[in-house]
Amino acid sequence: xxxxxxxxxxxxxxxxxxxxxxxxxxxxxxxxxxxxxxxxxxxxxxxxxxxxxxxx
Length: 56
Fold this sequence. Notes:
Blueprint: H1 21-40
């Protein structure tokens, strides 16, 4: 039996009316800041190691 999911109204964030131009601008600035901060941090890289053979 399949259930149908309700669609969300994503244009409304935390209020009953649409966003004002000032709110849209602030949200856009925050998103840009987070993306810039994410790009500044170096991504961890894995070091390639070789297994040493031990002869007994």
